[in-house]
Amino acid sequence: MNDRPSARELIAMTLDDGSFISWNSPLPPLPIEDSYRDELDAARAKTGEDESLVSGEGLLNGSRVAVMAGEFRFLGGSIGVNAATRMVQTIERATAEGLPVLAAPVSGGTRMQEGTRAFLQMVKITEAVVAHKAARLPYLVYLRHPTTGGVFASWGSLGHITVAQTGALVGFLGPKVYKALHGVDFPAGVQTAENLFAHGIVDAVLDAKHLRTVAGEALAIIAASAGTVPVPAEEPVAHIPSAWESIQISRRSGRPGLRSLLHYAATSSVPLSGTGQGESNKSAVVSLATIGGRGTVVVGLDRRAHGEAELGPDALRQARRGMALAAELGLPLITVVDTPGAALSREAEEGGLGGEIARCLAEMLDLPVPTVAVILGEGTGGGALALMPADRVLAARNGWLAPLPPEGASVIMFGDTSHAASMTVDQRVRSQDLLEDGIVHEIVEERPTADAEPADFCRRVGEAIVRQLAELELQDSSQRRAARTANYKGLGVGHSLAVEAIPGRSL
Checking DSSP bridges between strand 139-143 and strand 392-396, what pairing results, if any? Predict the structure, then answer.
């Protein structure tokens, strides 16, 4: 690659002009460095840096951010004891001062001249990153060309958001080492930023010149907390459709999905990709989004985007990534239900589908942040259940929720699909029934249907989310958790949610 800016060039490209302040403090000479002192002196003369890491702070769109960037020209960006110490000091100072960290590694990994002592520095670096994230402070990573070895396997892979440089070589074992050990080249195209993106390990691939935009948007969303004044709910529609009518409407191909909701209801969004662990379902959505002036994390399935209609275990693992991200950053979580059900296949079973549904339920019930679930359209089976146990539940007028598609329920009960319409009545699946039964807190009207007015409908959904968040933010975490549990304990035993006190209730 020819596009390899130095550490200071990258910092200058990313931060506001002239705002960088170095945190580099003098590093003491270590006895461990004596054996390769000439190499260190040559690297210092070549780069003008005293080590392979440049640290400091600056402004990004006017907001303070700590930065630490590797310098590849300094012994291949390798990390030894002194570079690791500088890194830990940088992260700990950022944590103490409440600053986000933007990390930009570029490295061949551990400094071989310092051996095992350098290798184990990755432990203390990781500990500092974990403490920073535990303080609910953002940690963003930009993987540059190349990033390999212990650097990739520690601070390079712990970002809340991780993006990679276009064309960058990124991987654990360096290809030169692989060839020397095995006598053949490492398979081509594997250790590339683009391949990692395709497999859901990084969130985006971008040139260095675009890092400023993406990092700025992400940090602005995370920091957004001043909500707008909630808009009152509109009057309910005069005609309340039957359950079967709603089901047919919800299945229309032109009905807006989750990405349409983000387009019209969010003022800004930064989509994330995959689980970070080698899986990427392109119909699953995990996104940072500003809704009503509030930073949020949005998860769900946009089932019309790539032809993947059913929720598989990979999609649920992506959803769980979003849940963890919301908890770590202290952002409200918005889940969007619009699925004909969980995947029924050998791959789904062997991929742990049932366990993923259970883990989604467990994590949502225990989240310390406000949560809002939106039944945007179809809400079928375990795929819908996994995203449902929120503090507040909204439903589109033609949204619905059922243990199976009505045709499947009819087969179970009667041996055929001819009773599907009547099953929807018996099972009380439509939004109006869900409201009356205390499962849904507010209905978002469609005038007459969402596919006829996608922009206005999506904006109304956004306004409803804002109404619910405004109420939830008046409660502390323990109050929300207790109410969340109580809501579901009483369902079906004569108890209904206290919807009278919730704004925007539509009956």
Answer: unpaired
Scan for tokens 């035993």, then name that residue: 493
Please calculate the CA angle 404-410-413 and round it to the nearest 5 degrees. Answer: 105
CATH number of 229-340+364-402+429-494: 3.90.226.10
Angle at 84 between CA 206 and CA 159, to 5 degrees: 35
CA distance 287 to 270: 6
Q: What is the CA radius of gyration of the chain?
A: 26
Which residue matches tokens 């007015």?
453
Can you say how many angstroms the Cα of residue 317 is from the centroid of all Cα atoms in its chain? Answer: 11
Do the beta carbons of residue 300 and residue 318 sit within 8 Å? no
Per-residue model confidence (pLDDT) at position 307: 53
Q: How far apart are CA 66 and CA 413, in angstroms?
A: 61
Return the SS3 of 378. Answer: strand
CATH class of 7-222: alpha beta
The model's pLDDT over 182-193, given as tens digits with 9 standing for 90+, comes to 899 888 889 999
Residues of the chain with CATH 3.90.226.10: 7-222, 229-340+364-402+429-494
Q: How far is CA 250 from the centre of its chain?
A: 27
Would you say the pTM of this structure is higher than 0.85?
yes
Tens of pLDDT, residue by residue over 347-371, are 888 888 899 999 999 999 999 999 9
Q: Indicate the SS3 state at residue 315.
A: helix
| β strands within 112-197, DSSP E | 139-143, 147-148, 161-165, 170-171
- Position 96, amino acid: A
